[in-house]
Task: inverse folding
């Protein structure tokens, strides 16, 4: 849809409040929302494994690219953004017009919900699942349908379609946040083959690089009704720098661009471009995460703690007691974990940190779980860190 002055003014009048609120609905903000104390600096020696960040940070090439561009920070540079789209498209065998660049993947997630849901077209997601799209749908006046995951913690495509025969967006995070589990390709293909006309599959691949799951980008190549989201916040370690991609047919991307397409921070684009050009970063970081995750799972198993095996940089532990109480007790040990989903009230999500982080987690978790269970009355001990975008 062309962004004329009339269309712009109409959008502003109808959706300003919702769009203004949407940037708050991100992984970091949702992680912080379950804390209820004033913001302070992190205590010395604290462990932050609550927002699915990558403690390794940006790669060396990304850091170098940022420092080299600082003198140019006073200018816009759309050419850099176009080049990033071209590089990613070439790597994936796409045309550049099938790729749009955003400041993280939260923006295109929100805009996709605004574009394809309405009061008559629901937003459908797995449960437990990443909440940002649900909140965006509610702001858009759309009904939200939360469908329990299968016993193997995959998305249940048949149940999702049955929940909303006229749904507008069917959201599949693969691997899933918070469980870290993957959805088999046949579930995605069933959803695509049987979804209502005019709807889209919104496939969030924020965590795809940590797993062996196949990407859905080939469905975009085939011009299907699919938008794939990618972010540089997770494996690439750029959560605080902000860069992400929406991959889809140009007509679908135009519909979400209608709700916002701002100039990109040039340092974020340069860092993302350098990361894509690093030939070893995905395999190296995937291996590091897998090694630490496996070691953690082995410790949990040896100590008879229940958890959901994950292919991502996060996983769920069933504590057998109210999850918020465990979060609170862990915060008292300067280990910040979280969060809790209503459908799994005794489980908490843990981000895979460094080997040192996970050793500190194990010490604190064993201490907390050895103590008698106590009711959570709030507020959460410690600080409420302000990491607003991820």
Result:
């Amino acid at each position: 849809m062309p962004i004329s002055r009339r269309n712009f003014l109409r959008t502003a009048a109808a959706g300003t409040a919702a769009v203004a609120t949407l940037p708050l609905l991100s992984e970091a903000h949702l992680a912080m929302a379950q804390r209820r104390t004033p913001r302070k600096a992190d205590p010395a020696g604290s462990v932050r494994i609550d927002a699915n960040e990558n403690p390794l940070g940006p790669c060396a090439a990304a850091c170098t690219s940022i420092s080299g561009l600082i003198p140019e920070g006073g200018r816009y540079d759309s050419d850099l953004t176009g080049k990033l789209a071209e590089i990613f498209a070439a790597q994936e065998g796409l045309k550049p017009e099938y790729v749009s660049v955003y400041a993280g993947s939260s923006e295109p997630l929100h805009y996709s919900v605004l574009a394809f849901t309405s009061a008559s077209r629901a937003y459908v997601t797995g449960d437990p699942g990443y909440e940002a799209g649900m909140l965006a749908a509610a702001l858009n006046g759309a009904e939200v349908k939360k469908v329990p995951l299968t016993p193997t913690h995959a998305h249940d495509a048949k149940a999702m379609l049955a929940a909303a025969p006229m749904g507008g967006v069917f959201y599949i995070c693969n691997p899933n946040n918070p469980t870290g589990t993957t959805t088999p390709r046949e579930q995605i293909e069933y959803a695509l083959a049987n979804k209502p006309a005019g709807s889209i599959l919104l496939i969030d691949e924020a965590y795809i690089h940590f797993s062996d799951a196949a990407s859905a980008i080939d469905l975009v190549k085939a011009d299907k009704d699919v938008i794939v989201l990618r972010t540089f916040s997770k494996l690439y370690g750029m959560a605080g720098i902000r860069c992400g991609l929406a991959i889809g047919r140009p007509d679908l991307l135009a519909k979400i661009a209608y709700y916002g397409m701002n100039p990109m921070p040039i340092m974020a684009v340069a860092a993302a471009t350098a990361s894509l050009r690093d030939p070893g970063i995905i395999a190296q970081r995937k291996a590091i995460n897998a090694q630490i995750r496996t070691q953690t799972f082995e410790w949990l198993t040896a100590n008879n703690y229940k958890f959901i095996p994950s292919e991502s940089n996060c996983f769920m532990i069933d504590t057998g007691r109210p999850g918020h109480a465990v979060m609170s007790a862990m915060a008292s040990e300067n280990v910040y974990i979280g969060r809790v989903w209503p459908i799994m009230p005794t489980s908490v999500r843990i981000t895979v940190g460094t080997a040192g982080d996970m050793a500190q987690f194990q010490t604190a978790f064993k201490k907390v779980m050895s103590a008698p269970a106590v009711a959570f009355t709030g507020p959460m001990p410690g600080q409420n860190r302000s990491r607003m975008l991820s």
